[in-house]
Structure formats: C-alpha cells, structure tokens
Amino acid sequence: PVFAGMKGSAIENFSCVIYNIFLMNCTWQAGRDAPADTQYFLYWQKSRDEEEMECELYIKDENCRNVGCIFQNVSIGIEKAYFLVNGSSKDSLIQFYDEYIDLYKIEKLMPPSNITVNCDEIKKDCIIQWQQPQISHSSKDMCFKYEITIKYK
User: Fold this and answer.
1) What pLDDT score was predicted for residue 141?
2) pLDDT below 50 — which residues of the chain?
3) For residue range 21-62, what is the model confidence (pLDDT) as tens digits?
4) For residues 88 and 38, is the Cβ–Cβ distance under 8 A?
5) Are 85 and 98 in contact (CB under 8 A)?
6) Of 34, 85, 108, 124, which residue is 20 to 30 A from 17 by alpha carbon distance?
7) Can you tell me the distance from the alpha carbon of 109 to that of 2, in angstroms, rounded to the nearest whole number?
8) pTM of the model
9) What letter would DSSP give residue 20?
10) Residues with Cβ < 8 Å from 14, sequence gap 6 or more?
C-alpha cells in the first residue's frame, strides 16, 4: 500500500502498558525525519463496536510535542484494540502509524495482596499466604506463577 506522507515522518517505538488495574500508558518517539513542527495525535478504538476516541491526556516532550498518552478507567475486552497515531505539519504530509493490540498481553500485574507469614519456631517452619492480584481483564481461570525470595536476617 502507498502511504501518503513523507518517508520517516511516522512515529517510532510505539508501546502501551496497562497498570494499577485500570490505567494505560502509551508512548512513542517522533519520526526521525519528521519536520520540527510535527504534532502527533493518538486515536484508539477498544473494539469494532465502540467509537474511536482521541487521547484526552497527552504526555509532552520539552518541545511541547505529544509523545504519549495516559488513559484512565481502561477495561480489557476480548477483541484486539486498534491504535492510530497521525501527525500534522505546516511543511509536509506526515505518515500515520497504526497497530492492533491484545490488551491483556500488555497488562502489568499488581503484586499479590494480604501477604501473611506465620512461623513456628518449634517445628522450624513458616506458612506464607497471599491473595492473587487483582487483574483488569475478567478471565477468571488465570494461572498465576509466583516467585518468593526469602532473605534470612
């Protein structure tokens, strides 16, 4: 396909992460050949049925150029979400960048909660218990792997 716009003007290194259960952060870098006045705009669509929305809270660099977006109240659906970043400049047409992302794959899980440790000095053993972390997506049958590091003091 022929993309309108100057070669090397589309954003690079686009990535998103979901954290704290319902927050999402997406970041990118300006295209290496983009004119200095290029400004970028992010649109996303959670699923085909939902309407496309523009970022409400941009992250800006020192030149006031949009280089990321913070989303609040994100919930993870079963479909891939669609992301589109386009740009504008007085001097030339800017190429767009788009990507489909499975949101559950980019969720950074919260730590387990309610961790308790009960040690028995006579038996010389300890029982460590915790609750599984809260997750943004609703898949109840998730298998969690935990790693416990014990340091003796």
Assistant:
1) 63
2) none
3) 889 999 999 999 999 999 999 999 988 888 899 999 999 999
4) yes
5) yes
6) 34
7) 39
8) 0.81
9) T
10) 26, 27, 28, 83, 85, 97, 99
Sequence spans of domains, the chain: 12-105
Query: Residue 123 is encoded by which pair of tokens?
Result: 């038996």
State the amino acid at position 144 in one-letter form: F
| pLDDT (0 to 100) of residue 139 | 60
pLDDT at 13: 97
Secondary structure of 76-143 in the HEC alphabet?
A: CCCCCEEEEEEEECCCCCECCEEEEECHHHHECCCCCEEEEEEEECCCCEEEEEEECCCCCCCCCCCC
Token duo for residue 80: 């891939």
Indicate the CATH number of 12-105 among 3.80.10.10, 3.30.590.20, 1.20.120.50, 2.60.40.10. Answer: 2.60.40.10
DSSP 46-70: SSTTSPPEE-SSEEE-TTS-EEEEE
